[in-house]
Amino acid sequence: MPDGDVLPQGVDPGKASVARMYDAMLGGEHNFAIDREAVAAFTAIDPQVRTLARANRAFLGRAVRFLVESGVRQFVDLGSGIPTQGNVHEVAQAACPGAKVVYVDNDPVAVAHSEALLADNPDATIVAGDIRDPAGILSAPRLRELIDFEQPVAVLMITILHFITPQEDPAGIVAAFREALPADSWLALTHATDEDRPDTAAAVGQLYRDRATSPVTARSRTEIESLFGGFELVEPGLVYVPLWRPDRAEEVPENPSQYWVYAGVGRKDA
Ligand SMILES: C[S@@+](CC[C@H](N)C(=O)[O-])C[C@H]1O[C@@H](n2cnc3c(N)ncnc32)[C@H](O)[C@@H]1O
Predict the structure, then answer these.
(1) What is the pLDDT of residues 68-86, one digit of tens each?
(2) Which CATH architecture has domain 18-268?
(3) The model's pTM
(4) How far is the CA of 133 from the centre of ligand 1 (A)?
(5) Mutate which of 163, 164, 169, 259 to test ligand 1's pocket (most atoms within 8 Å of Cβ)?
(6) Strand 124-128 vs strand 74-78: parallel, antiparallel, or unpaired?
(7) Which of 82, 118, 206, 228 makes the best surface tag, with the fewest CB within 10 Å?
(8) 81 CA distance to ligand 1 centroid (A)?
(9) CB of 160 within 8 A of CB of 247?
(10) Domain-wise residue ranges, the chain
């Protein structure tokens, strides 16, 4: 969205939005000057943040293909973001036509662009919702129309839970979604960590507190692993994002901990 377009309702022009910043990191066009300035400040802290964003997005694609191969035909993508390359419905429906995808986001720009993109897709939709209100999301009529909770569902929480503060109880949010899922359902998530790069995480935390619509809480490996309570992590477990089932060995960087985001996929315990 070029600057000067009419802002969707609910957009705060004085704050960089976490959704639009991510769009800018990925080279998208649905962001404003305030977002690009925040990404420039982020890049000054971590020069490879755009590479990290692309690696996170690549994990999303690998995880969705893995889940389709594992028999999943329904996806709920929480914090889905502004549509970009390799959206979940594109990956899932390429591997399995008719796969159902419900996107959820609380960013008005993400919701508006998703609605436009999905207008002609009967098997995918977007719900404007806040992950801090699992009951509201799970009862949304659009979600209920597409998702059959008698069949396995994959819930995706890809770089969203670090936008949830400890007071907002990320583990409780995951548990609320888990309880709604039948057996053989899945959770895929990525999450920023302060495990090996505490200074970077602290500086980025300050940046988001100062400029963005949402603060960031980076967490330790143990804290992130505990979010998988009630799910069994599949191989290779919780790892830095490029290490999760890479398509090619050349894609694995020399020092994966420079990618300060953990990734994992878990199956709901019987
Ligand atoms: C970094 S983007 C990630 C997009 C996509 N999941 C990916 O990883 O490629 C995070 C997204 O989470 C959304 N988000 C943040 N907090 C949220 C909340 N409480 N409820 C719903 N969405 C939220 C943001 O609007 C943004 O679109």
Answers:
(1) 999 999 999 999 999 999 9
(2) 3-Layer(aba) Sandwich (3.40)
(3) 0.96
(4) 14
(5) 163
(6) unpaired
(7) 206
(8) 5
(9) no
(10) 18-268
